[in-house]
Every structure is written in structure tokens, then in C-alpha cells.
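Continuing the batch. This is chain 6 of the set; chains 1 through 5 are on the previous pages. Same settings as before, nothing changed between runs. Recording input and output for traceability.
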Amino acid sequence: MNDEASLLSLADQTIWIAALVAGPVLIAALAIGLVVGIIQAATSINEQTLTFVPKLAVVAIVLVLMGGSMMSLLADFMREIFAQIGAVTS
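Output for chain 6:
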């Protein structure tokens, strides 16, 4: 029973970490897509590739600004998982 609770806790924590890492990038891409979509609707420019370059630029900026904290979060999580694996095998 303890193994099942531990596994569910690990799965819950994994989903939470994935959301924290992917969230800023996805929210930034969504916001810039919405802004460009509104501009396209207002100006009647129906070019599908117009949103690609601003999204790419914003995602790159978000990764430059927050990439270090994202990697730190992932590294801490991986250290915790490897510590748990070591505790189970010993």
C-alpha cells in the first residue's frame, strides 16, 4: 500500500513539475498568438505564417529569461527521484 501511495505522489509531482516548466513558454506563445490574431483580424491580413516569427521570438526570449530556473527545477526533481531510487534499492 505504501508503494502505491509513493508512486501516486511521484506521478502527481511529475505532472506538477511538467506544468511549471512548460507553463511560461506555452502562456507566452498563447498570448502572442492572440495578439497577432487580433491584429490580423483588424487588418484583414490572412497570412498563416505571420504568427510563426513572433511566437518563435517570444518563446526564445522566455527560454533565455527563465531557462535557468526551469533547468534548476528539473535538476532538483531528478536528484530527488534518484535519491528515492537509491533508497528503494538499498
